[in-house]
C-alpha cells in the first residue's frame, strides 16, 4: 500500500485566549497541524486523529529529505489503508503543552519573556479537545466524520463526544480507558518523581541552565516502556537472554538483553523529549475522568453522546489499559442504547498493539471506516 | 497468640573465606543471626527462615525498649503460631551484602581499609545458601527440619534442596519463581538505574562523600512497591481518591492519595536502606536460575532433590511472581515424583500477601508445619 508521501506541517496561530479547565488561560499560542487527503465538497469526510504521550501531528507520510521520518500511525493512515486518505481528509494536531511544534513549556511565556518551563499552565484532555475544535473550525469543518485516537488519544476521542457531540458523527477509541486506575497513576507518579528529583530539572526551569534532566527522563521512559509491552511479548523477545560473553557478575553493567533494550529506549527518549511536557501529559492522563462530574456514573456521562456512533477496540494482553476498561465504556454506551461496535483483539503485544498492524485489528478498523465512508451524510 | 517476646540478635564471625559463584571470595565476614524456640535433644527441629530484599535475620519478636520493632514475619512465627516456636527452633540469618548487620557494602573492605561500597563482591542466591549453611553448621545442626522463605527467600529455600539436599527434610517456598521473567528483570533494572544515575551515588562510593543517593532509592522503592501490590488492592485502597481540597492542577504536588502513599514509602525506605545493597540483592534475584546449568530443564535441576518434601504456596493476584511460576516448580517436582503440596491462595493483596495473615494461607502453613513436627525423624 502506498504512503501519503511527502507531507508538510503547518503552523496555526491563535490570538484568542484558550480558557483552560484550571481557570488559567493559554495566551497567544500556535498549534502544529498536518492534513492528508482532500476535504470533499460538502466537508463531510474529515477525520481528526488525536495523539498520545509520545506522538504528534505527524500521523502519516514522510518529510522530504528526512530518512526514517514516517508518521507514527503511517501503517493505518494512507491511500488504500484502513483509514483511507483517498476517501477521508485526515487531520493531525499537536496538542498544546507537547514538544513537537505547538506552544509548549520550552516556548516563551508572553507574561515573562522567558520560557514557560514549569509555569506552562496545566492542560487537560478537555483543554486539548477545545484546542483541536478551534483547528477544525479554522479548517472550515462543521462536523467531523470521526475522531480517532489510541490510549490517551482515545480519551480525547471519547471527550469529543461529550464536549462537542454535534461536531462529530463517529468516535473510534482504541486501547483506552474511562480513567486511570490507581496503578496507572502510580506508574505516572514514579516517572514524574524521577524527572522532578533529577538535579538537572531545576524546578522545571532547566532551559535557563543549559541542561536537560536526562537521568529522570531515561528512568521515566524505561518505566513507561515496561507498561507498554506485555509480560509475554517481553518474554518472547528477550526472555533471560544475556549479553554476549555471558554472566559478568556486575550490578551496574548490562547483563541481560532486556536491560540493553530498555537503556537504549531511555537514552533515545531523553535526547528529544521535553521533561515539562512529560509531566503535563501524564497529569492530563491522571485527571481524565468524565464520570466524575456525574457522581462516578459513566452511563450518565455518556447520555449526551447518545446519537453518536462508536467503535471501541482493546487488546487481550494490554495490562496498561486492559479490555476490562474498554468494556466499562461499552457498558455505559449500551446502557444509553448507543450504536457501539466493540472488538477485543487477541494480540500478544500489550498496549503497544494499537500502533502495530495486526491484520485482525486493521481489518476491524478498515471495515468501520469503510462503513463511515459509505453511509449517507444527512446535513442539517 | 503470644509473641516470642524479647529477642536479641547475635553476631557470628567467620574467618574462613566464603568462596562465591563469581570466583571472588568474601574475606573475614560476620553474619547476624537470631533464633527462637529451643533446639531439641536430637537437633531435629530446626527451621531456617530466609529473607527477601527488604528484611533480615529479625524474623519474629521485638527488641526490648524499641517500639514497633516486631520481626517481619512475626504473624507466622511464634508460640502457637503456624510455625510454632514451642515445637520448632527457628533461625533467621541476615544475608551477606545486606544492610542489617551482616557484612555488607558499608563495612570495611579488609583489602583497602575503606568501605566496600560498589566493590562489595556480587553475591548470588547460591552464595547466601552457602553462608547460611555455615551458620547452621556452627549451631551444631546436621539436618534442618525445613527451610522456609517467601519471594527471594523462597528461591533460597529451593536452592537449599539443590545445593545441600542432605541437610534438610522439607522446603517451604512461598510466592516465588524458578527464575525472574524479562519483565521482573526490567523492573529491577529501572530501579538500579534510578540509584546508579543519582549524582549522590558517586559510583557506589557515596559513604566517603557523606551523602546517600536518596532520590534514586525513593524511585526504586516506589517502583518496587507498585509490583508488590495487586492492581485490585491498590484500586480498593486508593482508587482515584484525591488529597483533601480536591484537584489542584499541579504536576509536582500530590493530587492523588496513591501518590502520597508511594512518596511516603519511598521516603521511609531511603532513610534506612543501603543503595549498594539494593543493587546486590536485585542482581541476585536476576541471576537465580537453577535450570540454566541443565539446559533450561527445571525437571533435571530438581532430580537431586528427589527425596525432599515440598510445600509451594502462591497467591492468585500476585503478578510479580504469579501462580504460573509456582506451577512451573510444582511441575518439575511432580515430574520427579517428588512429595509436593501446592496451595494457590485466592487472596487480593498481590505479592505482599505472603507477609499477611490470610487465614487460608496460614491454615495451610500451620497444617504443613504440624505435619513436619509430627513426622518421625529417621536419623542416619
Task: Describe this protein's structure.
2 copies of one chain form a homodimer. Chain A is of the alpha/beta class. Helices cover about 35% and strands about 15% of the residues of chain A. The first copy, chain A, has helices at about 125-140, 150-165, 180-195, 215-230, 230-235, 255-270, 275-285, 300, 325-335, 360-375, and strands at about 10-15, 20, 25, 30-35, 45-50, 75-80, 85, 90-95, 145-150, 170-175, 310-315, 340-345. In chain A, the strands form 3 sheets. An 8-stranded mixed beta sheet of chain A has the order 1-4-8-5-9-10-11-12, with helices on both faces. In chain A, a hairpin with a 5-residue loop joins β2 (about 20) and β3. The longest helix of chain A has 16 residues, at about 255-270. Chain A is globular. The two termini of chain A are about 35 Å apart. At the A-B interface, α3, α4, α5, α6 and α7 of A face α3, α4, α5, α6 and α7 of B.
Relevant terms:
homodimer, 380 residues, alpha/beta, transferase (chains A, B)
Sum up the overall morphology of chain A in one term. globular
Strand content of chain A: 15-25%
Structural class of chain A: alpha/beta
Strand order across the biggest sheet of chain A?
A: 1-4-8-5-9-10-11-12
Outline the biggest β-sheet of chain A. 8 strands, mixed
CA distance, first residue to last residue of chain A? 36 Å
**Number of strand elements of chain A:** 12
Q: What is the CA-atom radius of gyration of chain A, in angstroms?
A: 21 Å
Which residues of chain A sit in consecutive blocks of at least 5 with pLDDT less than 50? none
Mean pLDDT of chain A: 97
Oligomer: homodimer
**What percent of residues of chain A adopt helix (DSSP H or I)?**
25-40%
Counting DSSP H or I runs of 4 or more residues, the number of helices of chain A is 10
Which pair has the most extensive contact? A-B, 59 and 59 residues
N-to-C order of helices and strands of chain A: EEEEEEEEHEHEHHHHHHEHEH
